[in-house]
Every structure is written in C-alpha cells, then in structure tokens.
Design a protein that fits this description.
With 358 residues, the protein is of the alpha+beta class. It contains 10 helices and 12 strands. Strand 9 and strand 10 form a beta hairpin. The protein is globular.
Length: 358
C-alpha cells in the first residue's frame, strides 16, 4: 500500500452495482481499505466532513412504530476539517471547537485504548447550531481519524453511538458515509443508526443558495429535547401525505433532474413541519431575518425554500449555477443593510468524507 492512502467514501460517477458494493464495504467501518494495514505504521489522518441540509421529518405521528423518518442532502460547503497525528504522550487539541473535539477523542481513547499520545488540530468547522450538522460531523470526523490509527476495522455505527450521534436523524451520518440525497427510515425499537431507505445523487448542475444569520442560534441540547416533548400530535393524514409526496414526486424528480418538482415537495415539507414546530421556535422559521428572505424568495416564485433542521440557516434549491449566482447577488444587494445576513452558493455533495491516511 502507498505511504499515503486517500479514502473517499463515495464516488459521484459510480454505477449502481458499484454503489451497492461500496455500501456493503462501508458497513464494516469508516476506513475499510486500511483494515489490517494500519497500526503503528500509520502516523497521521486528515478528515474533511461535509455539512448537510435536513429538509424535515416526514412522519412525526409515530403511529407505525418508527420515529423521525427524514429527508436530507449533503452539501460541499461548509465543512469540518481536522488532522489527528500520533504524539509521544498525552492528548493535545487545538483549533476551532477544540474543547468539543478533545472530549470526543478522550472518550474514544478511554473506551478503546491507544498505543501513543495524539495531537488533534481542527482547521475548520461547520458553524455550530446553524442547522448544518456541525456536531455530528465533528464527532464522526474525530471517530474516523481515531479508527484509522487505532482500530481501522471498527464498526462505524458503534462509534457513532458511543459519541451520542444519530439519536434521532441518520442524515448527518449518511452524509458522512455516502453523501447525496438521503431518505432515512427513522428509529425503530432496535435501531442503532436510522437505516437508509433511498440514496440518490444530486444532479451536478443543481445549486443551493444558503442564507446565514450570524445573530441567531438554532435550538439544540436540552431545549431541543424539551421542544420535541411539548409538541402536539402530528396528524396521521399529514404524515401520509408527506410520505406520498416524497415517494411519488420528490424522488422521481430527483432521479430525472427536475429541480422545480423536487423543490416543490421540499417546500411543502417545510411548510407543514415548520408550522408544526412554530410554537417551539416562534414561527415557521426560527430567524425573523431569514424568514424575511424566504418570504422574498417565495414572492419571486421559488418553491424549494426552507430552513435546515432547527435553523437558523435557510436555503433555496436552484436548477443551475447561473441562476443561483444571480439570485445570491440580488439577495446581497437587497439585504445589504442586514449585517448579520450572508449568502453562499453551494453544490450538493455526492461523496462522503475525505479520509487521508499517512
């Protein structure tokens, strides 16, 4: 094996047969090609993990025995990037969100042991509590790096659960593993990580306009748990309608590259689920500033709009790069007087985390 081995967890242009083979391989661990070859010779691992959009839960009724069935998409930016290197002794962590990353590493070392010390450098993180999956991607990036150096055959789902991830949604975990648009099957009585029901690539030409609000933080932690507990029952007929829309309209539209039809279903999910969460977050969307932007986008005729997870980050799904850049430029001009608002055009990501072992 070469001194430096790079593992990309999925390839955008893979065939269906290759997809299935890759997914079977990935079930064994984060870095399957290093199994049996890592160990003392491996000195350093770099991991770049993608953000994700969570479009919403489809069945909050829970009447069929599963909870938090959801739809989401991996995106190419922002991302979490870190490097874990062997050291003579101790654990040293530096960089963005160092305290949380250090806690993950400490937990893994305590659980599995380690032959050396480590230096963990977090070069870049997804903005925290913005609805982009920052906590899951940081935890999985640390776990993947540790696994590559100390236990490359470790089961990925086990490490995810050790670090407290995928407790509700499996979309962030799937973004790390495979990228693409993912429909996860929610949690059943014996679920470790919600299973992937469908995974399709994002068309290369599509773009997503992200709307950031630096002055607002999305709900998380105990407040999030309390909000779920206090929500009223979600009507079974509304859950049935959303599931039908995803199966009969959204996924076929995605397969055929129809951004307008796919976006219209995402917008419908956002409207119904956002209104359900309104008592907890103060409205259909959490941030008043993002709400204003999304209302403008809707008035301009865009249907694929919404808020990812608890927000505050908003999004708009667009059919091509030129349209997305024009819209971003218009938004920057229109909201120049809102210093907390910013805009970015990103692509869907059809690959999982990039893991480089040296």
């Amino acid at each position: 094996m070469d001194e430096a081995t790079t593992t990309t967890v999925e390839t955008a242009a893979s065939t269906l047969g290759h997809d299935r083979a890759m997914l079977r391989t990935l079930a064994r661990g984060f870095v399957p090609d290093r199994a049996g070859h890592a160990g003392a010779a491996a000195r350093e691992v770099r991991v770049v993990a993608p953000a994700r959009l969570h479009f919403g839960f489809l069945d909050l009724n829970f009447g069929l025995g599963r909870k938090f069935v959801g739809l989401g998409m991996a995106i190419d930016a922002p991302a979490t990037a870190l490097t874990l290197a062997r050291a003579e002794a101790g654990l040293r962590t530096e960089g963005a969100d160092a305290a949380r990353a250090h806690a993950h590493l400490e937990r893994l070392v305590a659980e599995h042991g380690a032959r050396t010390g480590f230096r963990l450098v977090v070069a870049e993180t997804i903005p925290p509590h913005a609805g982009l999956g920052s906590g899951t991607q940081l935890a999985l990036a640390v776990a993947a790096a540790f696994a590559a150096l100390e236990c490359p055959a470790a089961e990925a789902t086990g490490l995810a659960r050790e670090l407290g991830r995928a407790e509700r949604s499996g979309i962030g975990f799937s973004a790390f593993r495979t990228g693409g648009v993912v429909l996860d099957g929610g949690r059943g009585p014996a679920t470790e990580v919600p299973p992937v029901i469908a995974r399709l690539p994002v068309p290369d030409e599509w773009r997503i306009l992200l709307v950031f609000d630096a002055a607002h933080v999305g709900m998380h932690g105990e407040a999030e748990t309390a909000a779920f507990a206090a929500l009223p029952p979600f009507p079974a007929e509304a859950s049935a309608a959303l599931c039908r829309l995803v199966l009969v309209r959204a996924l076929p539209a995605l397969a055929e590259g129809d951004a307008s039809a796919f976006g219209s279903v995402v917008g419908e999910i956002q409207a119904r689920v956002g209104d359900h969460f309104a008592p907890a977050q103060g409205g259909r969307y959490a941030s008043p500033a993002v709400t204003e932007v999304l209302a403008w986008l809707a008035a301009e005729g865009h249907q694929g709009i919404g808020q990812t997870s608890w927000g505050p980050t908003g999004f708009c799904i667009l059919a091509d790069a030129a349209a997305a850049e024009r819209l971003a430029a218009a938004a920057r001009r229109r909201y120049a007087g809102h210093p907390a608002l910013s805009f970015a055009v990103v692509r869907g990501r059809n690959a999982g985390a990039r893991i480089t072992v040296r």
